[in-house]
Amino acid sequence: METNQSLKKKMAARHITMIALGGAIGAGLFKGSSSAIVAAGPSVLIAYFIGGIVLYFVMKSLEKLVLSSKNPHGLSGLVQPYLGNHTADFTDWVYWSMWMINIIVEAVAAASFLQLWFANIPTWVFVLIIALLTSLINLFSVALFAETEYWLAFIKISVVILLIIFGVYLVAKQVFNNDLITTFSGMTNHGGFAPHGLKGVINSLLIVIYSYGGSELIAITVSETQDPKRAIPKAIRGVIGRIISFYIIPMFLLLVIYNWQTLAVSSISPFVMVFNKMHIPFAGDIVNLIIILALFSSINSGIYASSRLLFSV
């Protein structure tokens, strides 16, 4: 296993923090949350809480590995001292394979969202354009990759914060027009809080855990981070609570504003529904753009991660 001595330390603490935040906030939240609600109903909140606990332990474990490593250099470098070279290599190949599948799936998904605007352009053209753009970003420099991910994460986080602000306003408006009990009773009036029981919560966990994925990417950035033993643990401690909040708070507000069956049968993103309710012009196009950017960010991160994994083998 080679060390990554030739990699340049161009990532600052601010990049690591935003990569960790942005990695967990993607199409799984903006679009995939509807599928989780279909599976579990309002009890999807329990699934997101459980997913948050899993995320907490994964990220805290990563923090401990970085702090205890004498010379951290990527995912395999963190694993190798404890489990040996073969397990470290196996970990790299499994994670690389996951990203290969993810890149393909999300490139096709991004193309399908772009076709909502450009229906006459074939899917493969959009996939090729996305592949070229993300490859060029990664080939140019790690600094460009970090800065691109920083601003893409900033956009995604801003949209989630906007949804929370709009959601709080709409819930407060409902409480003012009706009353507190009537407003929150919608979460239990349509088949109860857990209409599909424990099975529904378990089924939704597959979607929820996938949605939370991405923050662990910062383990790959160790070799290219300035003072990683300070920057990465600081980023981990600062983002865990925020990531969980960015999922649970919007889900709670959505389930108060709309009954879960309305969210489940809707063909549009729950974010679009809230923006439409606030009379935001071009709400559908705005959220469609955000989903495309989220997918682009994930593909960009996937190319970065997979290239570094191959470099370390």
Summary tags:
13 helices, Amino acid/polyamine transporter I, 313 residues, mainly alpha
Characterize the structure shown:
This protein has about 325 residues and is an all-alpha fold. It has a single domain, classed as Up-down Bundle (Amino acid/polyamine transporter I). Helices cover about 75% and strands about 0% of the residues. It contains 13 helices and no strands. Helix 7 packs antiparallel against helix 13. The longest helix has about 40 residues, at about 75-115. It is globular and about 65 Å long. The N and C termini lie close together (about 5 Å). Keywords: Amino-acid transport, Membrane, Transmembrane, Transmembrane helix, Transport. Its main location: membrane. It is a multi-pass membrane protein. This is Amino acid/polyamine/organocation transporter APC superfamily. It comes from Lactococcus lactis subsp. cremoris.
Which percent band covers the strand fraction?
under 5%
Q: How helical, in percent, are the residues?
A: over 70%
Give the low-confidence spans. none
CATH architecture: Up-down Bundle
Q: Helix- and strand-based class?
A: mainly alpha
Q: What is the CATH superfamily label?
A: Amino acid/polyamine transporter I
In the CATH hierarchy, the third-tier topology is known as Amino acid/polyamine transporter I
Helical stretch tally: 13
Distance between the termini: 5 Å
Mean pLDDT comes to 85
The H-and-E topology, N to C, reads as HHHHHHHHHHHHH
Outline the biggest β-sheet: none
Return the domain count: 1
Instruction: Please give the number of β-strands.
Output: 0
Compute the CA-based radius of gyration: 20 Å
State the assembly state of the protein chains.
single chain
Query: CATH class, please?
Result: Mainly Alpha
**What is the 3D shape?**
globular
